[in-house]
Amino acid sequence: MLPISALSALLAATLSLELANAHGVHNARAHHDIAKRQTTAVALAASTSSSAASAAATTSSAAASGASGATTAAPSGTSAATTAAAVSGTGSYNVPPLSAINSAMPSGATPTLSTTFSPGAQPTYSGAPVIPAKFIFSSADWPALDRIPPTDSDQVKEWMKELDGHDIPDITPTVDGECASDPQAAAQAQQRGWWTCGGWTSGNDIVACPEKNTWGVSFDDGPAPYSEKLLKYLDDHDLSATFFVVGSRVVSYPDILIAEYMAGHEISVHTWSHHPLTAMTNEQIVAELGWTRHAIQTVLGVTPTTMRPPFGDIDNRVRAISNAMGLRPIIWTTGPGGPFDTNDWRVPAGEHTGTESFATFESILGNASTMDTGFIVLEHDLFEITVDLAVGYTLDAALTHNPPFKLESIGECLSIPMNDMYHETATTDIVGANSTSDSTSSNSTSGSSSAASGNGATGLRLPSSAFVGVAAAAVAAVFAGSL
Ligand SMILES: [Zn+2]
């Protein structure tokens, strides 16, 4: 496969040039322009690799099935031992020293799945259906990868009926999901309940774990080749996490999704193409959520009851559509220092070093320990770099923190039984689709309104995250076609 770090470096180099051209001014416009150009790159990558998509999926499956019997002995490692080993770069997880984690990092070996599951395999939670017939990707069955799906398909027309009887607010789509691009929408951010622009949430959104010092662990944008490294760590440490998966990755790496699910982790919807939802029409939002839901159901046999909007970009219209489709929104916590975003995605983009991202994470832990509730943090399993940061550093830091943190999946921390995380097995409706338009409130568990401001100290986050999400999709699209 084409080394992902090489692609990351390429994208990072492009970004550096663009920033230099912008005279180092990190303004929204500059980032927006970069994002637009990268969108073109995504389209090109998608079009050049679309014919290879099924081959990619097939190759991935073959590689995965060829990995049976490759199970390695679980390391005995305590957290401390794991950290020490990781720093040397020779530990069980083969994580480089923190100082070596950056966009120029050479790519390590692609992990192979230690365990694969055949159709008919039985998940362990109550009432779970068995794993369906083996998923074979056929491009005729799915929208183009990493692009907003068309809205004139029979499937989308059918899914649109799910909105019938629901009060979907008549809110004009934003320009591009960014605060700075849309002053008119920004001025109405509170009425719109626009998280991106002020941290506004609804009472139905999940934004934290209730119990103090509890971290609801989650990873976004996979499944991807390096997710397996993360799965091994989580298994070795008996931890569960929530994976917010992108539909385009699900159909590319079905066996990795099955491995996540069968290991007892939660699977949640993170859209088909990973574009900002507030900028889309109702039909496009339905298409993004519907196709991802369908992809997960086809591979696993179950349909999630939760979703996470890319970039956290949600407003009352997106919220109402999500809830009407049986998907309850989950965002990351806004705490005393701002949104709990580790900035791990900035490292493959060349914007931050691994050392900087880990320092961000340590300050999040410090802020989290002052809160009365638990918390949820944004991390990713799309890139080797972000997986290495989690496996080598952030998870260990939380496990060895004083005071200690309890690490759980988001459903676990909310005491939601696994069966209620999926529609086919639910005995309780956790979505509450008719209670979605309740009053909007600020997403600030610290009680500080400034902490929730997307335009304040964290203003850079918005355009940058939009860019990197697109860049990530570009890389994903490229390597999806290269495996
Ligand atoms: Zn994402």
From TrEMBL:
A UniProt-annotated Pfam family: Polysacc_deac_1
One of the protein's GO biological processes: chitin catabolic process
Residue ranges, annotated region (Disordered): 432-455
Co-factor requirement: Co(2+)
Keywords: Carbohydrate metabolism, Cell membrane, Cell wall, Cell wall biogenesis/degradation, Chitin degradation, Cobalt, Glycoprotein, GPI-anchor, Hydrolase, Lipoprotein, Membrane, Metal-binding, Polysaccharide degradation, Secreted, Signal
N-terminal signal peptide: 1-22
EC numbers for this chain: 3.5.1.41
Iron is among the record's keywords: no
Location of this chain's protein in the cell: Cell membrane; Secreted, Cell wall
Annotated family: Belongs to the polysaccharide deacetylase family.
PANTHER family in UniProt: CHITIN DEACETYLASE 1-RELATED, GLYCOSYL TRANSFERASE-RELATED
Protein name: chitin deacetylase
Organism: Lentinus tigrinus ALCF2SS1-6
